């Protein structure tokens, strides 16, 4: 549905609708906002490159619980769904306790690979281990 610009008479009627509208000059403000919107409508151009750039700035997070199949491997690969990882934060929990030593790095530009260290508190992947992550 398209709306035409309100007339000065309509602005005056809106201004007089009730005390709040009178105090705010509501009809006058609506008229001014419409004029600004119309004046700027031709200057706003969004192209595909801008949208892709904004998508690249998105913060994505999730949680992954290791399965029995993960326990057989030396790392967990998490598909983040992003187009590229500039940075990440990873926290690993094993039986509810925070594991302080682990390695996490991005692989393939959009996936996280979480690898336990042999010297830290998280040295093996067990089914039920939980990885909480944030990528940006």
Describe it for me?
With 136 residues, this protein is α+β, with helices and mostly antiparallel strands. It has two domains: 8-40, no CATH class; 49-135, Thrombin, subunit H (Beta Barrel), CATH 2.40.10. 31% of the residues lie in helices and 28% in strands. The protein is built from five helices and seven strands. The strands form two sheets. The chain has a four-stranded antiparallel β-sheet with strand order 1-7-3-4, with no helix packed on it. The chain has a three-stranded antiparallel β-sheet with strand order 2-6-5, with no helix packed on it. α1 (8-15) packs across α3. The radius of gyration is 27 Å and the shape is elongated.
Concise structural overview:
This protein is an alpha+beta fold and 136 residues long. It has helices spanning 8-15, 19-24, 26-40, 48-56, 68-71; strands at 60-65, 76-79, 88-94, 97-99, 102-107, 111-116, 130-135.
Question: What labels would you give this structure?
Answer:
alpha+beta; 5 helices; 136 residues; four-stranded antiparallel beta sheet; elongated; 31% helix; 7 strands; Thrombin, subunit H
Count of distinct strands: 7
The N- and C-terminal alpha carbons lie at a distance of: 39 Å
Task: Please give the share of residues in helix.
Answer: 25-40%
**What is the alpha-carbon Rg in Å?**
27 Å
Q: Which secondary-structure class do the elements indicate?
A: alpha+beta
Stretches with pLDDT under 50, minimum 5 residues: none
Biggest sheet details = 4 strands, antiparallel
Q: Look at the structure and give the CATH class of the largest domain.
A: Mainly Beta
What's the helix-strand series? HHHHEHEEEEEE
The strand line-up of the biggest sheet is 1-7-3-4
Averaging pLDDT over every residue, what do you get? 76
- Anisotropy-based shape: elongated
Distinct helical segment count: 5
Task: Report the CATH architecture of the largest domain.
Answer: Beta Barrel
In total, the number of domains comes to 2
CATH topology value of the largest domain: Thrombin, subunit H
Beta-strand proportion: 25-35%
